[in-house]
Design brief:
single chain, alpha/beta, Rossmann fold, ProC C-terminal domain-like fold, 2 domains, about 55% helix, binds 1,4-dihydronicotinamide adenine dinucleotide, binds (2S)-3,4-dihydro-2H-pyrrole-2-carboxylic acid, proline biosynthesis, pyrroline-5-carboxylate reductase activity, EC 1.5.1.2, 6-PGluconate_DH-like_C_sf, oxidoreductase
């Protein structure tokens, strides 16, 4: 795991909880304070040397910011790796296309681009994978195996990954924002923050469970809560007046465009 930040930690933590052995994971993290945190929390080996971690690895996971990818690739290029042992490279980095890695790695290197999300920290991630040019069925199966231990896995063509990033990669932030806004609104109505938080969290969890398990779609489930002339209709009218639906169209378009821009700097 190259990059032990928020998403790297989420995958490491999820993998360990799902039964991966600590000895099978090595994290490369360049900030010493962060390394100490990870070592203390997970009892795994953390190093600042990419060469050290990559030697002997079957899978290299890149979890650095898009702007740090070229430095990582340069370090991998300098590392004297065992050329007999083919490594699968899994990039969790937003925006950066598989071709950027393929152009810098030895010819024929298998690269999968993954868009994960942070709920994998609690085993509820939604990961989406797109295969690079040299990915074989076994490589895809290995990527799937790693990611299924922390949630669901969907495979799409790489042309759809920017849109996926807008939906599920950034998606948890939208739900957290809605939760924050509802909690503040409940407090404004005079409820305690603790009571409001408990109610909002359970309402989100219960609504997600209904969407996942009832077999009904979101529009029908919403209609079932909306009594004629009732409280929900009054609330929805205000949300629509506030432009909530248009805001989501615009927000997801902006995220999709930003993902495409992050990857277009070099190819
Ligand atoms: N945070 C999220 O919800 C999601 C993030 N991503 C992607 O995951 C990647 C990482 O994001 P975060 O974890 O949020 O960022 P972060 O900033 O929390 O973590 C990145 C880590 O990489 C380390 N790092 C940077 N250069 C390094 C190098 N050369 N060698 C070793 N370590 C190095 C940094 O010290 C930092 O700890 C990004 O590319 C982002 O697009 C994808 C989906 C969701
Ligand atoms: O905001 C970002 O760029 C990353 C990618 C998806 C979620 N977080």
């Amino acid at each position: 795991m190259i990059g032990g930040g928020r998403i790297g930690e989420a995958l490491v933590s999820g993998l360990l909880h799902s039964g991966f052995a600590t000895k099978d994971l090595v994290v490369v993290e360049k900030f010493p304070a962060r390394s100490e945190e990870l070592t203390a929390e997970y009892s795994i080996r953390v190093t600042d040397s990419i060469a050290d971690a990559a030697e002997g690895a079957d899978v290299l996971v890149i979890a650095v910011k898009p702007g740090d990818v070229d430095v990582v690739l340069a370090d991998l290029g300098k590392a004297d790796l065992d050329s007999e042992r083919e490594k699968l490279l899994m990039s969790l980095v937003a925006g950066v296309p598989t071709s950027r890695y393929e152009n810098r790695l030895p010819a024929g290197s298998p690269v999968v681009r993954v868009m994960p999300n942070t709920p994998m920290l609690v085993g509820e991630g939604a990961s989406v994978i797109a295969a690079g040019r040299h990915v074989k069925p076994d490589d895809l199966a290995l990527a799937r195996q790693v990611l299924e231990s922390v949630g669901t896995v969907t495979v799409v063509p790489e042309s759809q990954i920017d849109a996926v990033t807008a939906v599920s990669g950034s998606g948890p932030a939208y739900f957290f924002l809605v939760a924050e806004a509802m909690i503040d609104a409940g407090v404004a109505l005079g409820l305690t923050r603790a009571t409001t938080t408990e109610l909002v969290v359970q309402t989100m969890t219960g609504s997600a469970a209904m969407l996942a398990r009832s077999g009904e779609n979101a529009a029908d489930l919403r209609a079932a809560v909306t009594s004629p002339g009732g409280t929900t209709a009054a609330a929805i009218r205000e949300l629509e007046r506030g432009g909530v639906r248009t805001a989501f169209y615009e927000a997801l378009s902006a995220a999709r465009d930003r993902s495409a821009a992050l990857g277009s700097s070099a190819d």
